[in-house]
Amino acid sequence: SQQGEEDPQALSIQEGENATMNCSYKTSINNLQWYRQNSGRGLVHLILIRSNEREKHSGRLRVTLDTSKKSSSLLITASRAADTASYFCATDFNDYKLSFGAGTTVTVRA
Amino acid sequence: DAGVTQSPTHLIKTRGQQVTLRCSPISGHKSVSWYQQVLGQGPQFIFQYYEKEERGRGNFPDRFSARQFPNYSSELNVNALLLGDSALYLCASSPEEGRSPLHFGNGTRLTVT
Predict the structure, then answer these.
(1) A:B CB pairs within 8 Å
(2) pLDDT score for A1
(3) Distance from the Cα of residue B104 to its chain's centroid
(4) In this complex, do B43 and A96 lie within 8 Å of one another by their Cβ atoms?
(5) Strands A104-109 and B44-50, sheet pairing
């Protein structure tokens, strides 16, 4: 399988804390993307990092990519209740499909 | 602009029946992809269409088929439904094929009894 695998499967944090989740994958990629999904609804694209990039920021999100270790991490800083969701990494290793992991479920407690 | 729209939102079918799911991409988007998401798992790729041609197919049986129309909308058909076909079916569009981020609809929840 070419899927990424997220770690941990679930994460519970207090509002205002940071949340970190990791993604590992198996083959060389063109880019890696992170998506958020609220309560079984559609996925929302958060950030894309290309294979020649090492770090990328978007608002309270920070993504790193280590192609030598075939891994990526997503950091959400100063979490809010609205960040409660499932987060998926998706690897793009060919031209027509993304391979998703099983996701990390994040719960932010007020 | 409207996002990706899918219909119906929920559907209950009996084993052996056939189902058609519909998707309208974001205006101007020519690529449509279909994903199946079983409860507790990540989305699994089923098909990608670009400019009305099938560009890719995932590891799904021939009971699954799709097409894209001249207005870039798409239909996913599943024949001879099995209990294991119960899932959230997600449609996603992008302006072009390849490495664009995907814009997802809210999905069709299919329950097979």
Answers:
(1) 62
(2) 45
(3) 10
(4) no
(5) unpaired
